[in-house]
Amino acid sequence: MSENKEPGVWDGFKAFLMRGNVVDLAVAVVIGAAFTSIVNAVVKGIINPLVGAIGTKNLDHYSSCLSSTCKGEQGIQILWGTVLGAALSFVITAAVVYFLMVLPMAKYLARVEARRKAKEGTREIIEVTELEVLKEIRDALVAQRGSGHNEQ
User: Fold this and answer.
1) pLDDT in the model for residue 111
2) Nearest Cα to 61, choosing from 45, 53, 70?
3) How many CB atoms lie within 10 A of CB 69?
4) What is the pLDDT of residues 31-53, one digit of tens each?
5) Which terminus of the chain, N or C, has less C-beta within 10 A?
6) CA distance 43 to 68
7) Neighbours of 48 (CB within 10 A)
8) How far apart are CA 129 and CA 61, in angstroms?
9) What is the 3-state secondary structure (H, E, C) of 46-97?
10) DSSP secondary structure of 111-132
């Protein structure tokens, strides 16, 4: 009797690690972590001081009170400054990622694609031209044959 052995846990783990998408994901996480420090530096060093010149760098102190007394930690406070700060931080980070990475990469890829299409277009024109020349030669030969048969 032949037994069908199911792959062991170790074999399954090795197969999982060798998949291409796992390696791609690991590279993306590492690059993302490295890129995070660049984005944070731009936000902290450039954007936050500009926002701080208009208002304040720390929005956490802004809140509204829903109860009659709000002193210190007492009362019901809505910390809308914290939410606004997080939202602004997200928008600023997204803008930095878009304008410093996504947009330049999209423009670069569009240029590469335009060059590729231009090459294909040139190749296609050459092929069409060769085909037209061959058709003309064929037509000329047919015309010669046809005129030769009429004379006999």
Assistant:
1) 92
2) 70
3) 8
4) 888 877 887 787 778 777 777 77
5) N
6) 38
7) 16
8) 73
9) HHHHHHHHHCCCCCCCCCEECCCCCCCCCCCEECHHHHHHHHHHHHHHHHHH
10) HHHHHHHHHHHHHHHHHHHHHH
